[in-house]
Each structure stands twice: as structure tokens, then as C-alpha cells.
Structure to design on (289 residues):
């Protein structure tokens, strides 16, 4: 006998997983916190076990929840696609996405090209800035979504991937041996800056700011000319620059999470579709790694 899953339960489940909170999910879904809790309880009864555990960052899917989450997203996306098709509802309207400078070329630009081809009636606007600036604009409701970088231990957004922060220098360069260490960061509000400064302080290494607040291209130029070193996520380092090895004399740096943030208001159909494209692209990139 065929049994049917209630997509309302799955949509609430995905919202809680995305937000890490019953209360935040309820705001997105225009439901009460109690209603969302009851829906999760019903789904857990069907699934045969708990779907979430609580940690310092909020609610996190269990192993059972992780298995259900990916399939739930695919089912919800297909449901929305079928609904749009039978009702003639084209995905259109404006979407404002915020992305840090260093993530645009290696990861976000290909996603946006794919999305623009699939949804040509959507008016995309790309806003670049540092991760702290973009997170603030999400909180203010100025963006529809943002992909940002956060320290793993304090990440608040929906996890997309984790990568190590690395020191970067010119191919065969010597700037990393200079004292004080010449350091080039994209902007003063760079999310990596506190971690870099803390690592240098622990090592007792003197440093000086060679360049900041001039954009990614200018930062690349100072590093390529061996005038300074910088720190970026490993997967964003251009092929013509070196990831400096552990024996370079520079201190170890922590890993960072790439996370997805959305404002408290319910997303438009266009924003929800772009979120789906981003999630799918990061899942594919993790599988390919």
C-alpha cells in the first residue's frame, strides 16, 4: 500500500535545519513555534527517531536527520517545480545576493550563470563586501540572501562547506621571511583578520599592513609582486600563487565555514530558487572533492 509524505512537515523540517531554531523557522514559515514543534514531532514519529540534537550553535540534524534532509530538499524542489509548471507561475522578480570578494570567482559566479540561464526573468543583483558587512545587511533586511565566511566555532548560518585558512605568497617568493611580516588583506573588516592577528600574536611575530581597503585585484597584485603575504581559504587561491607550507615559519591558521544566510522574512519564489541552486552546487562540489 502506497504511503504519502506530507510536504508541509518536510518544509518545516528543512526550515529548522536551515535556521537551527524552531523559533526562527516559525518566523519564516509564518507559524507559531508550537506548530513547528508539533510538525517536527510528527515527522520524527514517521522517521522512527529524533531528527535534531541541540548543541552550542542551536539545533543540528542527527545522522537520521542528515539522511532525510537531502532527500527532503529534492522532494520540495520538485514539488515547487511541478506547482509552478501547472499554475504557469514563472520564477521572476528581483533577488539581491551578497558575496565576499574572494568567493565570487571560484564558487558563486558559476552558480549565478547557471541560475540566470534557468531563470532568465529573475533580476539578479550581486553585492560584494566583507562577510561581517554582508551579515549586517542581512540582519537589516537589505539582502535576500548572502553567502559568507565565518569561524567554524561561531558560525550561525546554514553550513555549505568548511575549508582551511592558508597563508598565500608569490610563487617562489620571499616576503614571508621579512620582519616585520608584510601583510595584505582585501579590506580592514575582513573576517579573517582577527584570526590572522591572533595567530601572529601567539607566535610573537611582528607584522605591518602592506595594503588593505583596495579590493581583491589590488591584493592579488601585491602578493604576486612578492610585496606581501595574505591569508585566504585554500580553494580560493589562484593557481599562479603558492600556498605557503608549514615550514615557511608562519603560524597555523584555523578553518572557516562558508555559510548561507537569509533574512527573517519569508523568501520570494525567486530567492528560494536561487538558494536551491546554491545548495545543490555546493553539494556537487563536496562530492567532486
Amino acid at each position: 500500500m502506497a504511503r504519502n509524505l506530507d510536504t508541509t512537515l518536510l518544509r518545516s523540517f528543512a526550515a529548522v535545519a536551515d535556521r537551527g531554531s524552531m523559533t526562527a523557522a516559525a518566523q519564516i514559515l509564518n507559524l507559531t513555534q508550537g506548530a513547528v514543534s508539533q510538525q517536527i514531532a510528527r515527522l520524527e514519529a514517521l522517521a522512527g527517531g529524533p531528527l535534531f540534537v541541540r548543541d552550542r550553535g542551536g539545533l543540528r540534524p542527527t545522522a537520521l536527520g542528515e539522511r532525510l534532509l537531502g532527500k527532503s530538499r529534492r522532494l520540495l524542489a520538485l514539488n515547487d517545480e511541478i506547482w509552478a509548471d501547472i499554475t504557469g507561475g514563472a520564477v521572476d522578480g528581483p533577488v539581491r545576493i551578497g558575496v565576499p570578494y574572494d568567493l565570487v570567482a571560484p564558487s558563486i559566479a558559476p552558480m549565478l550563470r547557471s541560475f540566470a540561464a534557468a531563470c532568465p526573468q529573475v533580476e539578479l543583483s550581486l553585492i560584494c563586501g566583507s562577510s561581517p558587512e554582508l551579515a549586517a545587511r542581512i540582519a537589516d533586511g537589505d539582502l535576500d540572501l548572502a553567502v559568507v565566511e565565518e569561524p567554524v566555532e561561531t558560525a550561525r548560518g546554514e553550513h555549505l562547506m568548511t575549508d582551511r585558512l592558508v597563508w598565500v605568497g608569490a610563487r617562489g617568493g620571499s616576503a614571508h621571511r621579512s620582519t616585520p611580516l608584510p601583510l595584505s588583506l582585501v579590506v580592514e573588516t575582513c573576517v579573517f583578520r582577527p584570526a590572522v592577528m591572533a595567530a601572529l600574536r601567539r607566535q610573537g611575530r611582528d607584522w605591518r599592513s602592506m595594503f588593505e581597503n583596495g579590493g581583491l585585484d589590488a591584493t592579488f597584485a601585491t602578493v604576486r609582486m612578492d610585496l606581501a603575504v595574505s591569508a585566504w581559504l585554500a580553494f580560493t587561491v589562484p593557481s599562479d600563487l603558492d600556498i605557503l607550507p608549514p615550514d615557511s615559519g608562519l603560524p597555523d591558521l584555523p578553518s572557516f565555514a562558508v555559510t548561507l544566510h537569509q533574512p527573517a522574512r519569508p523568501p520570494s519564489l525567486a530567492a528560494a530558487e536561487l538558494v536551491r541552486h546554491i545548495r545543490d552546487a555546493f553539494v556537487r562540489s563536496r562530492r567532486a572533492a
